[in-house]
Fold this protein.
Amino acid sequence: MELNITTLAERPELADALDGMPDTWPEFVLEDIVGWANFARIAVEFPQYVLVATDPEGVVVARAYSVPFVLDAPGRGELPVGGWDRMLLWAFADLRRGRTPDTVGAIEITVATGHQGKGISGRMLAAMRDNARRQGFREVVAPVRPSGKHVKAGLPMEEYARLTRPEDGLPEDPWLRVHARAGGTVDSVATVSMTVSGSLAQWREWTGLPFDTDGPVEVPGALVPVHCALAHGYAVYVEPNVWVRHRL
C-alpha cells in the first residue's frame, strides 16, 4: 500500500483527521488519568514527533506519537517501572524546565480500523526510528503493549514477554515481533505502566460487564485482570507493558 508519512509539524492541517481517525482501542484504556490529561498536548507541543500516514486519496490511515525526554538524569537512568505514564510525565516536566532531551519515547502507534494486517504498523515504527535519528537522537524506547497478551491475561507479563517461536526464536507476540524485526531488544517489564481506576458503575459502562463479584475480572482487551472491590464500590486496572529499546 502506497503511503505518505510525514510529521504533523509538516502537515498541521491533518490534526483534526489524525485525532478523529477510527481505531479499536478499548474504551477503558482511554480513561487512564495521566493519558487523559496529557495525550492531547503532544500534537500541540511536540508536533515534530507526531507522524501521520495518508493513503493516495489523502485519508489518514495510521498515526504514531512519540515524545522527547531526558533519561540520563538524577533519579532516572533506567527505564521506569511506571512505563507509559511515567515517560509522558517526564517529557512534559522536561519541556517545562527547558531540559535538553536525550531519548525519544514511543507513546502510540495505531493503524486505522480496516487497515490492520497490511504491514503498516511496522512501517510506522520504522518512520518513528528514522524521525528520531534525523533529529539527532541515538535511541528510541517503547513501553510496548503486546497485541496478543489479552488472550493470556492470567500469565505474568514477565513470562509472556519471553515467549518465543521455535522456528525462528522471535517473540511469540505479534507486536513484540515487529519491534524485534526492526532491531529492538526487550529490556524489562514496566509493571505499573498505566492505571485506570473507576467506580463499578463506570466499569460497567466502559465494558458492558456486570462487575458484581470480588476479585479479578477478565475484561476483553485488558492485558491482565481488573481487580474488583465490590464492598468498596471500585475497580482498578494496572497494566504492565514491555520496555523495548531501539538503538539508532
